[in-house]
Structure formats: structure tokens, C-alpha cells
Specification:
Layout: H1 3-12, H2 19-24, H3 26-34, H4 49-60, H5 65-73, H6 76-81, H7 91-106, H8 119-134, H9 140-154, H10 160-166, H11 180-189, H12 191-220, H13 228-236, H14 248-266, H15 272-277, H16 280-295, H17 298-311, H18 313-318, H19 329-342, H20 356-377, H21 382-386, H22 389-392, H23 395-402, H24 407-416, H25 432-443, H26 449-454, H27 462-465, H28 494-524, E1 526-528, E2 534-536, E3 543-545, E4 548-554, E5 567-574, H29 580-587, E6 594-600, H30 616-620, E7 622-634, E8 640-641, E9 654-661, H31 663-672, E10 683-686, H32 694-705, H33 713-720, E11 736-740, H34 746-752, E12 756-760, E13 771-775, E14 784-790, H35 813-823, E15 826-831, H36 838-852, E16 858-862, H37 865-876, E17 885-887, H38 903-927, H39 938-962, H40 968-972, H41 991-1020, H42 1024-1035, E18 1038-1042, H43 1043-1056, E19 1062-1065, H44 1073-1080, E20 1095-1100, H45 1112-1117, H46 1124-1130, E21 1136-1137, E22 1140-1141, H47 1146-1149, E23 1160-1161, E24 1181-1185, E25 1195-1198, E26 1201-1203, H48 1205-1221, E27 1228-1232, H49 1235-1248, E28 1259-1262, E29 1271-1277, H50 1290-1297, E30 1300-1308, ...
Parallel strand pairs: 12-14, 15-20, 15-21, 16-18, 16-19, 17-18, 19-20, 22-23, 24-30, 27-28, 27-29, 29-30
Antiparallel strand pairs: 1-2, 3-10, 4-5, 5-9, 6-7, 6-10, 7-8, 7-9, 11-13, 13-14, 25-26, 31-32
Helix pairs in contact: 4-7, 5-7, 7-8, 7-9, 8-9, 8-14, 9-16, 14-17, 16-19, 24-25, 28-32, 32-43, 35-36, 36-37, 38-41, 38-42, 39-41, 43-44, 48-49, 48-53
Length: 1387
Amino acid sequence: MSEKAAKNTRRTGGVAPTVKEILEDDLTRISLEYWSPRTPANKRKKFSAKVVAEIYAKEIKAGGQQRIMLLELSRYLECFLWPNFAAPAPLSHVMSMVAMVNEKRRENVPAWDCFKEDEEKFALFLEHVLEYLLGDEATFAERERLLVFLTHCFQSLEDDLVRKNALKLAGLSMWHHIPEGRREAELAAWPRLQKHWKHLQKQEKKKAPASAASKSKKSKKQKSPRGRKAAKEAAEAEGEAASGGKNFARDFFALALSQFLAVLDAITEENAQEAISDGKVKYCERFIQFMSELVSQLPTRRFLRTLVECTHVVVRCEMSALATLPAGRLFNELVSTLRYFQWFEIDDFTGTALSKEEMMATHCTEIQQTQRVAFLLFPELRTFALSNIGSVEKRFFMKQYLRVLDDPAFYRLCCRLHLFSEQPYSATVHSRAFMEEVLFSRMERHSSMLETLSTQPVYPTEELMWDENTMPAERVGSNTVLALPRLNLQFLTMHDYLLRTFQLYRLEAAYEIREDLADVLKRVKPRRLDMGTTQFTGWARMALPLRSFKITSVRTPHIGEAHPKRVVGEIIVDLNGARGGIRQEWESIHLHDVLYLLSIDATIRKGDQPDMSKSFIERHGLKYARGCEVFEVLDENRNAIDDRTRPQDIQGHVRIFRVRLDPRQWLADRQNIQEDVYGTFNLVARRHSKENNFKAVLASIQQLLSSKCAVPEWLHDVFLGYGDPHAAQRVSSLPTINYLDTFLDVQHARDALPNVELSIAGSEKELQRPFRVTFEPTEEGGKRKALLEGIPQPNPGPFPVDRPKQNAVRFTDRQLEAITSGVHEGLTLVVGPPGTGKTDVAVQIINLIYHNFPKQRTLLITHSNQALNQLFEKIAALDIEDRHLVRLGHGQDQLETEGDFSRYGRVDLMLQKREALLSEVERLAGSIGVSADVAYTCETAGHFLTHHIRPRWEEYEDIVQRDTADDAVTTHFPFHEFFSAAPGRLFTGDRAHDLDAAEGCFRHIARVFEALDEIRPFELLRSSYDRTNYLLTTQAKIIAMTCTHAALKRNDLIRLGFKFDNMVMEEAGQSLDIETFIPLMLQAEDEAEGSRLKRVVLIGDHNQLPPVIKNMSLQKYSHLDQSLFTRLIRLQVPHIQLNAQGRCRPSLANLFKWKYEDLGNLPAVSKGEYLKANAGFAHDFQFVNVEAFNGKGETEPTPHFIQNLGEAEYLVAVFQYMRLVGYPASKISIITTYKGQKHLIRDVLDQRCSHPFFGRPNRVTTVDRFQGQQNDYILLSLVRTKTVGHVRDVRRLIVAMSRARLGLYVFGRRKLFENCYELTKTFHHLLQRPDKLALANKETFPTVRGVDEVPAHGVLGVESVVQMADLVARMSNAAAAASTAAASHAQ
């Protein structure tokens, strides 16, 4: 490391160096000499192992994270380490490659791509990793890095190369190392395994002579160094390792476990500090985490779990000296996780989840086996052998029964139970305590995590929120060890999936609450008075001092439960001192809002400064934090306050909140804390209502855990990550599909089905939509054949309202493929790159399901209200009856539709429609001379249809069938007067036309009575509650809601008996895994038929940003930001990728289309406004280099709040310029990659654009917040000048580059971003144009200049933000002068 870089690292405490320092760094110089792509290949120096060793020693081993980051950015792995890797590779070379892969995984960038060039060499590299891990050459810190690498390998089993090599280590052959009796028992239970084991035994015998010959050759060549050829021969020899001839497939895990246990045993209380400093403790923690990862996924669990159990890893860890030390707290939590997965309720070989009854049966069988052995071989244990299972399974009684055995006899008992291998007894190896713990842990009943969860409170406490082992204050990556579960590709069972998700989601909620409570505590400034009491010397918007709190009611527990049924408390606060706006916010607290009761015992005396060496809760005196839910609000006179209460009726300043506390937490506090926790609260805090949705999600998960999940059988295995990835696709295929209005014409059908030999039924010229396609059975390899025919459409009626609405989108072939797949039963994944019409595809899928399967009900889900409204508006514009649509949730207020599609709005609409239809019936009755009150109710209207309308129509049909005259229809049609208002001439005298017109008229009448028949239940049901429930559970065919609303209302929907057949989800890539899963579970499983779910359509883009997770530990380490959509894509479930974008100019699409295979452009983006230039700009997109402004680049006023004043001023100046040129403000959006920059840009806008003429841009927000949105012109600030930052995540880059339709102007530091490997393809296009902003002189918006034309009045190159600001000032002055002159002239 150069002296300058070292100084920087010390000075900043690990903050990355600046660009200038990077360029002056020794690593940059070395990379330019040896491997940098910027240096021509013929000028680079040859590979030197000495250089690798020096870099490893100075930069990787001793240099820290920043140096590794810099090396990885320089493409050290791709351009130097991997091309020059060969056996035997020294430790420095292998560890350098491992460090680069680990860094790539930490940064969430592709890690395995470069290895795919040579699969054999990757296998050799992996063998080197294993050998160094098991050898003595690597330090414990290096072994830890090797374990991190192997963990990443086993977490990347979706990659063919990694899976092929990694799973070799987790095979049956490792059972060589378990006791023979146990192995025979396991093999006897599974005959297929026994056959496979015999095959392995034969292979071992064949390998033995070859292995002996190989060793003989090596012994002869001991004096000469091993060359590459010899290493290659050794690697190829029977799949053994490159050096030493080890059979890693058989021995690796046994050797690794043995090595770990030896290290663990070497740690004592006396050498604990040394063990911490030399990395032994971290190595032990990492190894246990590695084991937990492997036994938590079925492909690696099958055989390894048995080996782990037979090695007694968990018992030895729990009995180790490390477990008793303060430094072993994290280690103990990790061991607890391993224990949980070791005894998880699953059949290791079939992958079948075991029920509680099956687990109990297995447990009883094991105890009975132990009793049988004791009865036969140990006469002194007859009492034990004949005792009931209930007493034997308890540890205390077990110990009493078995104390009659001496140590050797106890050992023999354990060997007969196959707990140990049959070897001579050794008191030093097999201590009595150890043997007892092994036997007891095998025989005692293990409580499941579900039982533990049932006693776990929902609201996080202060202990959980500030636990550094689960939620460290500093940001961590995937290379850190934490006691947290992870969401990987696969899960053992549905319960495993739900349990992990519950824990992580609860921790994410705890983190967000912690951040809010920490802000409150800082603001209220608790200080200790002389008399020992606490005074709040500050104030916070979201908190108030308590006037009093008391528990008012504790209900007795349900039978079988320990915790109370309900605990009710009463919070009293005084709003007299609260400011106007703040008081109003507290007044608006209502039913189901969550409050937090805090107990603060201040430690800082008034006037003193806080001691920053103490923890946060110690500094601020936080003792307890408990959540509660409001169920009633009272005023000072104890009158109830609700939404209907008028402000003038509310009495006094005091408010009483009646709350429900968590009964489980209340019981735990009573049992574990001597102090009366609930008598110490002195502060109440609140959060915004929308931030408390976590409780509904957690409650939904708990309900799902305690009930049977209604996952359809065809989806179950794919969801968990097992089986054939194709298994859930097209569970049943339709030979004929009514495409209805999907095709605009016959030629469109041909274009959309390019790989189908399409036959046309009838005359092509006369064939019109709607269309039907019948697919013929196709032999494998043959071209598919199909018949296209028109669907005869009867006359719909004489009025415009009778004519069905038609689709106007000309779907592409890939869009049609997605639509077709969505109509078939099964799972459909649609990947939609930006602008490819994902919404149109979703809408047409719903439209076809609605018409092809009219009795089925479809659930429409999105992540955001905005996306849901866009979808719903398009659905409402198609030929779907309004009465079959309902939109749940609060966002329906923003719907731009004529009617109200909420539940209550739909009910009101039905009642209004009832009145309108009954008036039509009344008019119909009058037109045929019926004077009775037939339109009083829907029922009387039905009688009127039966007794008056149908007889008249049947009579008319009989007459016209007999009377063949041309005017017969006109003469005998019975409803002339009713249809007198129809537009145009109803009958023409042409018999065929008139017959058809009459049929249409009767269909119009029939639809009136059909609608009334559907409305009749609303007439019978008297309450709004019953009507809305009927609408939701029976009448509505398309029910739309956000995934959040689904979680909030799941319990209510289940209780109502809500049912649906299909689910279509948009924005699936932006929704958490559990947020996609809960909507699937909005109905109870039918006991007879199982799940009625037939179709699941997930539409999204895994190449754009994932769900937002605020806790970086849960995001980077636990992968909580993984969506179900992305997980299924990674599992290689077949998907359809849309391949034509219609959002932006083709030139702008080039900035992101490289990420998508075969992404083209729709014809729409090659005409109209897309062909015109951007007025005032020489280019339609440009990267603008922004150098230091006032000597500064990026700044960080508070941690992670990153700003760049130069870029902010530049963007605002360009916005002003665009407004002066004539651009509408609504067509311009400013986005940035950091929240701090967003706030800075808003501040600059407030200062620079105070004149009403400028206004404000349509949006000023972050890239993450702007996902799913677009605008004509985008100004983008990249902010960073020291490191690339999180735009290095290609998903964020894709979102940033794809938001603009017509113009994109990116502002950033060129030297930093152009060298980033992940950004190369985008910046290759950006930097083909000058990096100085090029303006077109004397142009106004809109311009007639073509996009490729040179500006007529020349181009002005802007050198800096100062020049841009001067230009805007001059233009503003000129505009103001012109405006003044025009005003005076007008006077």
C-alpha cells in the first residue's frame, strides 16, 4: 500500500480513497503494468507469482476491505489471477482469487462468469481451496475466508458450473465416516440407497490399486518439484485432489469436522484472548454458520445431517469452553441454529415435511429401541426398560435410571445404539458427561421452532432492537457472521420458509422501529434531576410524556395456553402543550394504530454531555420498550372518539388511549423481570400508520404456521426450490383458445404466431375478430400447426352501449406467448424489460380468463397503488362488466375512472344500476301495454320477464318462422315502441338483416334482466356490511388489491370464505417473497378438493431493483430483499421475456438493452416525436462530467447522507435552462442515486427557482423511488466522486437509464464511473459523445430539427457549472426584459 493511501485509510477510518488518490496509488500503477485492459496486451508485463504474493501480503491480507475493493474494481481476478492459475498454485494465488470472489458476492455483482471459460480448471481451483482449508499452511483468518467462499458456492447452486462441482462433496460416500451400525440401519430403510452404496464400494475397490500406483510414482519424484503436468494427472486421477490423492467427495466433511472440533477443544478459558486474536473464535463461528447453511437446504442436507449428528457437533459445541465465555455469545446463537436445523421436521431423503404426530412416532420409536437394547443387554436397567415413555424422555428421570451403569457400561450402551463407533473405551475421549449429553439429546423430545414461535411476542423489545448479534449498528455484508436466518433458493418445508421469513420480517420491523425510537430519544433529551427523577428537556413530534399508564384488564388464558387471552391497558396523555399540527396528528390516532410505551431512566445529568463510549440505550437511559395496539380513544370526560365524532363534541385536552398489549410479552415480563415493567413507563411514541403494517404481515405468517397452507400441489415443490423447474408450467393445456380481440386482424395473427403453421378457416378477407385458434397435436421436432377461425358474433343490440369494447394493442409474438401461457393452467413467469408492455400483457391475460372461464375469479395484485390503478384503469376500458370489478384498499381514490370501484362504491353502483334498470323495465312494460307495477323489485321484474316478455318473444318467433315475407319481422316484432329511441333505422325490409336486428334487440332486453338477477341479492341483503361481503365473495370476478392490503385483510377474507381461481401479479420483482406468498394464501384449502388455485402469473423484471429493505444486515446477509419472482428465475423456472420496448428512443434504449437478450424496438418509437431533436440540446442523451465545485466533490454531512453540491447546482441550472427554452415543467423529472442529494436538489430548487415562471419539476426523487415511472426528460445525478457506490449494482443502473422517453442527461465524475467493470457497457454508449454539455443555440421548444440533424445556429459547449449558471442568468434577464417590454407595449 502506498504511504498516501495508507494515510487516507487511517485518517478516514476505512472510507474509500478519492479518485486522485486511486490514480496515484501503487495498485493502480501495478495494474497498468500487468493486467489493466487499458494497457495494450503487447505492452503488459508477463505474469509474476512474486507480484501476486506481494499484493496478497500487503494489500489483501494486511490492507483491509478498501484495498480488496480497489483490486476487484481493477479486474484483478478476470485479467490476471484466473488466466494465470495453474496447479500447483501457492496459497497467495488461491487466497487472492477467493478474496476477489467474496468481494464480488459482497457487492452483489456476478461472481462466477469468468470461471465458465474453463470448467476443468475451476474444479482444480476448488480442490486447492479444499486442500488449503484442511491443511496447516493457512492461518485461521484465511481459513475463515475459505469457508466464506465455500458458503457462496453452496448458495449458488443455480449456477451449473458451481452446482456440478459443489454437490460432489455432499454425496453418499461421506457415510464412510459414520458408525457402521447406524449406516446399515439407514441403508436398510432405503433400499435404493443400499444399491447406490454397493456401487460406491465397488468403485472404491477399483480406485485402490490406481491410488497405490499414483502414490508410488509420487514417492519416486519427491525430490523434483511437481510440475503442471503432474498436477493435472493427479487431478484427473479418479476425481481425487490435485495434491495428496485425497478423495474429497468421501472425506472432506469428515476431515473438516474433525479439524474444527480439534480447534474448538483447544480453546480454553486461559487462552481465550489468544484464541480471539489469532482468529480461532471467528473461524469456529464461521464453521458453524457454514454447517447450518448446508443442513438447511435439502440437496446438501440428505447425507451431511447424519454425519453431523454422528460426529456430535452440537453437543461438543454446547459443552465446549467457548460456549461458557463472554466471547462465545454469538457462537452459542449459531450453535442453536444448527441444533434447530439438525432436528428439523423433515424426511431427509424424500423431502416430505413430517407432521407433529409423525415426529412423535419417530421419537417414541427411538426411545423404545433404547429400552429394548437396555432390556436385552443390561439387566440392571429393567426398571428403565419397562418405564413409560413420558417419564423416560425427561432428562432428570433418564439420569436417575442410568446412573446404575458405570462408565464403560454406559459406553457400551451408546455403542449398541450406534451413537459411537465400536472402539475400545477411553475415559479421556468419552467422559461420562459427554456420553450422557449425547444420549439425552438423542432421546429427549425436541421442541420445534413452531412451538418456540407460539410463545414469541410480535412487538420487538429494546433487547431485540439493540442486539448487535442480530442487528449491528454498522452496515455489514454477506461476508459477516451473524446469528440470523437466510433466505436462500431452497427451503426444507413450508414451515421452514415461513419461520425464516417471520424472524427476518420481524427484525426488519424492529430495525425500522429502532431508528424511529432512537430519533425520538435524541430529540426529547432525557436528563436526570438531583432527586433522581427523569425530565425531558427537549420535544419530539412523534412522542409525548405520559400522564399515567395502568393495566386495566388481564383475561384468563385459553385452555392449553399459558399466556392471558388479552391484556388491556390505558394510556393518558395531555395534548395541551402540543403545537397545532402536532396536536392534530395525535388527535388522528384511531383504531388499530400502534403505540410504543417507553421507560426512560435518564443517566445524563442536566448540563452534562453524553458519554459516547456507552451503548445507545445506556446513554439515553432506555430500560424498556413495549408495543401496543389502540382499540379505543376517549376524551377527557371518557366519551368515545371515532371518525364520526364532530370536533366540537370532543372535551378537554386530555386523551385516553385504550390499548391491547401483547399477552405473551406480558407473561414473559412477569416471569423474567422482578421489577414491575408496566409501572415504569413515562413516554409514549407513535409512528405513521402505514409504517405499522408489519403487525398484519407477522400475524398472517403466524396464522399460516398454525394452519395448513393451501399451496396447490403443482406449485408446492417448485416454490420450495426442488424438483423439475418445468413441473409447474402448463399443468393442463388447452387445445383451443378463444383469443377474442387479441389479434387485430389475420395478418396480426400470422405475425404473432411466427413459429406456427397457421391455416385459415374460410375467406381471409372476410375473417374478422374475435378469433379462435385450435392447435393440433405436434410430434417432437415438428412444426406446430393451428387453425385460425372467426368466432361468430351475434348482434349485440341496437344501442352503442351494447357493442363490446375492443383491444387496440398490436401485441408482439413474445407478448402473445406470455398471454397464451397465462391462459393455460399453471405457473407463468413474464420478464418485462422497461417499456415492453407488461401492463398490457397482464390486462389481456385477465381479459381472456374472464371471457374463457366466466365462472372463475381472478385476484389482481401489485406492489404499489400506482401500478394497481394503471392496471385497473386499462381493465375497466375493456369488455368486462363493471359489476364484476372491485378494487380494495385506499389507493382507489386516485383511480381515473368514471365509477367508484371500491367495495362500497360498487354496492352503491349496483343500487343505482338497479334503479336505472328497473326504470327500463317499467318503460318496457309501458311499451307493451302492461300497467301492473312490474318494476317494483328485481323479483317482480323477473316475473314480468317470465310471464310477459318471453311469451311475446316466443310468439314472435313462431310467427316469423311461418311467415316468410320480407316485412314479417317489421310487422310482428313486439317491442317497436321500446326501441324507438335506438339510433339509425332498426329494420330495413331485408329479412335476414331484420331477423338479426330483432335478435340483437332481444339480447339487449335479456341483458337487462340478467343484470337485475345479479343485483337481486343486494336487494335482499339489507346492511352495507352484508352487501359488500356478498360482492367480494360471490359477485366480483376480478378483485384487485396491493400485496400490503392482502396481508392486512387476510384474516377477514378467510373468515368470509373468500375464494379465487387465478392470481395475476404485476411488479412481482419489487415485492418481498412473503408479500407474494400471502396473496396466494387468501383462501382456505378445501378439504375435499384441496387448493382451487389454477393459475399464477407473475410479471416483473429481476434485472431492475429488488424490494426495499432498510436494514443492510438483513439485505446483504440474510437476502430478505429477494423476491419470489427473482428466486424462481434463479431456480431456472422457464420464463418468457418480452423483447420489444416502446417507451424510449432506440438510442436511449441502447443504454440498457445490453442487459436483455434480443431486446428490440416497437415501430412506435421510430416515428412522430421520437424523430425530433430535444430543443436546446445537441444530443438526445449525454454524460456530463462534473469536476469539483468550490474544491469539493461528494460530501457526507451525516453518515450515509451523501450530497454533491456541484451536481445539484448543475442539474437545477439545466432545469432552469429547459424552462427558459420552453419545456413544460411536467415533462421534466430529476432523479438521483442518494437520498441526501435529493434533499439538496430540492433546497437548491427552492433558492434558484423561486420565480413562478420556473415552477418545479414533475418529480425530484431517488432512482429507487422512481422505479416503475417514466417521463419525457430525465436529469440524473450520480453524486459519488470517491467510489462508484451502489449504482454499481447493475439493477439500479438499469432503472436509472430506462426512465426517460426522449432525453436523458447524466451528471457525474467521468474518471470514476468509466473504469467500473459493471458499468462498462452503458458508459461505452454514454461516452461516445462529448462529456461537456452541448447546447443548441437559439432553439425553442418544440423544435422541428431532426434528432440526427446538426443545430442550425451552432453548438455551445458548457465547460462547468459556473458557465451554465451564467448562461441561465443571462437568459433569465433577457426573458424578464422581454416580458416587461411586452407588458408596457400592451398598456
